[in-house]
């Protein structure tokens, strides 16, 4: 029984040593990407929303390459899927609300 415990602890130690660099990279990006916007970011957000609106009005989406259009479609689908998952979690069932 002691050999199983020592093998298990050795396996866990090796796993932690191998996972450390990947966790460090994850934490580096998580600190930057997962922070909420600061008040200093608001003007840039407004400008990018304005650019999106202007591009929609002028038809700039017609000049996108197929790759850019496909990437925009995937990002939109991801946002919609996360919204739907949040709705399912919020109502605690897949279909409809309990009345």
From TrEMBL:
<keyword id="KW-0406">Ion transport</keyword>
<dbReference type="InterPro" id="IPR006808">
    <property type="entry name" value="ATP_synth_F0_gsu_mt"/>
</dbReference>
<dbReference type="GO" id="GO:0031966">
    <property type="term" value="C:mitochondrial membrane"/>
</dbReference>
<dbReference type="GO" id="GO:0015986">
    <property type="term" value="P:proton motive force-driven ATP synthesis"/>
</dbReference>
<dbReference type="InterPro" id="IPR016702">
    <property type="entry name" value="ATP5MG_metazoa"/>
</dbReference>
<dbReference type="Pfam" id="PF04718">
    <property type="entry name" value="ATP-synt_G"/>
</dbReference>
<keyword id="KW-0496">Mitochondrion</keyword>
<comment type="similarity">
    <text>Belongs to the ATPase g subunit family.</text>
</comment>
<keyword id="KW-0375">Hydrogen ion transport</keyword>
<keyword id="KW-0813">Transport</keyword>
<keyword id="KW-0066">ATP synthesis</keyword>
<keyword id="KW-0472">Membrane</keyword>
<dbReference type="GO" id="GO:0015078">
    <property type="term" value="F:proton transmembrane transporter activity"/>
</dbReference>
<keyword id="KW-0138">CF(0)</keyword>
<dbReference type="GO" id="GO:0045259">
    <property type="term" value="C:proton-transporting ATP synthase complex"/>
</dbReference>
<protein>
    <recommendedName>
        <fullName>ATP synthase subunit g</fullName>
    </recommendedName>
</protein>
């Amino acid at each position: 029984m002691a050999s199983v415990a020592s093998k298990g602890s050795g396996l866990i130690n090796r796993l932690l040593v191998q996972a450390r660099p990947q966790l460090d990279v994850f934490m580096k990006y998580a600190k930057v990407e997962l922070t909420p916007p600061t008040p200093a970011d608001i003007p840039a957000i407004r400008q990018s929303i304005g650019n999106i609106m202007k591009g929609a009005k002028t038809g700039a989406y017609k000049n996108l390459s197929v790759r850019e259009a496909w990437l925009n479609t995937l990002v939109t689908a991801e946002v919609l899927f996360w919204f739907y998952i949040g709705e399912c979690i919020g109502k605690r069932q897949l279909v409809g609300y309990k009345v």
